[in-house]
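Below is how a single chain appears once it has passed through the pipeline. First comes the sequence as given, then the structure the pipeline wrote out for it. We keep one example in the README because the format questions we get most often are answered faster by looking than by reading.
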Amino acid sequence: MDLCNRYIVRDFFEGIREVPDKSIDLVELDPPYGIDLRAIKKKTNTDISLTQQYNEIQSDEYIPFMTRVISECYRVMGENSWLICWFAIEPWIEPLYQIITKAGFRTRRLVGMWYKGDGNLQVMNPSIHLGSAYEPFFYCTKGNPSIVKQGRSNVFQYRPIPSTSKTHPTERPIELIQEVLSTFGWEGARVLVPFLGSGNTILAAANIGMQAFGFDLTQEYK
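Resulting structure:
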């Protein structure tokens, strides 16, 4: 029940107002990517039923939306803390990099990568595009935190969840999330998840002794 209560069905911008300044050790941010997810799923012949409750951000709203989100994350994060920010490289890598650095974080364009392997790749236009086998994330510092697993590569190799087993259209494996969190965070760390989605980050954090909570708009995913 405690873990379930950490999944707060509420708008992020409303809920974050009640989170104290400098109270968070690590933020795992997986925002809507500003793309038409339903159209992509349909064109790649994948199940679109999971997207019916998914809340998207339109492309022309993405930059101001992310500017607000990153600013609020910076406010609530402690003096030596980490921000993990998943994103779509095309076309968002440079605009998002600028938003993150202008907010006060330090990061670089040599990002972390979730490598999914070569099977079941989704391709919008296979006649001119190769299939993408990875998803990137910025890892960003506020203050001077240290990586826990120093010397680790920036590639995290885990098979994705089969589409038939997903409860959320962008759900990631719990094992992947555990590895990402434990690479940067420590036991007892307080983790904020602005957009909870499937809620797997709450479960992953609990498995490795961290305390995660966050927000989402959809009761069904809770």
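The CA atoms of residues 44 and 124 lie 6 Å apart.

See the next section for the split statistics.
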